[in-house]
Design a protein that fits this description.
With about 300 residues, the protein is mainly β. About 5% of the residues lie in helices and about 40% in strands.
Length: about 300
């Protein structure tokens, strides 16, 4: 989601970058495709919007990284340090640095303000494809997870590994909450579940609810933190296959979920009240309402 505007960005195998308006529930702008104002030219694998809303970073399957101006939707930067698909792109809170992870088990950090110069990299710590990354709210630290159920921490843009983190990050505030591993979300893996069964996680901006998306196509809504095996969850259905990404909007009004093979973008209304009237109003406006206190 882009700040100060009710817009979200998606990319796909159809070689398009799309901006959607959550208030009007329609396509707002398009890069690539017949109706596009500019061509993208490559399939998109992952996307992120800078915190100030000025830039959109896109990772591509052939190791290419592109950065786009969010207003003009023109490509302003492109490089290809890697050969394998880019799996995650993540701007830091200052919008100056961009962390880029690939299926080469590597992480690169670029200084966008200085011509996308690479200032940090690592290709030795992770043993499997990197799946998620988050910057701390102050931009000093980075955390990452991979398909081998490894959670690693790093010192900011230089990407120096943090080797002794026992308890250090317990109270750290994170700018995003996408990693699937951590003390505050251990309950999302029930009996018989592996790390590869849960593709995406996000925590509501007010730190009340956690939503996880699974290979089975369902979304599960937990109270945050989800740490007890005795906790129940609300289950929501809609996607017919893997839920590849989920994200709360910055105003906490909606949750966006991205399907895999079903090619769907779902918009869920996030209701934080026991007032049934609010749920009825949400249903009249279309879509399905999530209520955090059902958990």
């Amino acid at each position: 989601p882009a700040p100060n505007e009710r817009l979200i960005a998606t990319v796909g195998d159809d070689c398009t970058l799309r901006l959607w308006h959550t208030g009007q529930r329609r396509l707002h702008k398009l890069v690539g495709g017949k109706e596009a104002i500019a061509p993208m030219g490559m399939q998109g694998a992952c996307v992120d919007v800078s915190q100030d809303g000025s830039m959109i970073a896109v990772g591509h399957p052939r190791g290419v990284l592109t950065v786009w101006d969010s207003q003009t939707l023109k490509c302003v930067l492109q490089n290809s340090y890697r050969k394998e698909p880019i799996s995650v792109v993540r701007f830091d809170p200052s919008s100056r640095y961009l962390a880029v992870a690939s299926q080469e088990q590597s992480i690169d950090v670029y200084d966008i303000a200085n011509g996308c110069r690479r200032i940090g990299y690592d290709q030795a710590r992770h043993t499997a494809s990197i799946t998620h990354m988050d910057w701390s709210a102050d931009g000093q630290y980075l955390r990452s997870t991979d398909n081998a159920a490894t959670l690693l921490y790093w010192y900011g843009p230089v990407l120096k590994p943090f080797t002794d983190h026992t308890g250090f990050f317990r109270d750290t505030r994170w700018a995003t909450e996408s990693v699937v591993l951590g003390w505050d979300r251990k309950h999302i893996f029930g009996p018989g579940y592996s790390i590869n069964d849960c593709n995406s996680v996000d925590v509501s901006p007010n730190k009340v609810a956690l939503v996880a998306g699974y290979d089975t196509g369902d979304l599960r809504l937990y109270s945050y933190p989800a740490i007890s095996n005795q906790m129940t969850c609300s289950i929501f259905y809609g996607h017919c296959c893997h839920v590849m990404g989920i994200k709360f909007t910055r105003d906490d009004r909606y949750l966006i979920s991205i399907g895999g093979q079903d090619l769907c973008v779902f918009q869920w209304r996030h209701i934080q009240t026991r007032d049934n009237h609010a749920l009825k109003q949400a249903n009249k406006l279309g879509g399905i309402a999530m209520r955090a206190d059902d958990t």
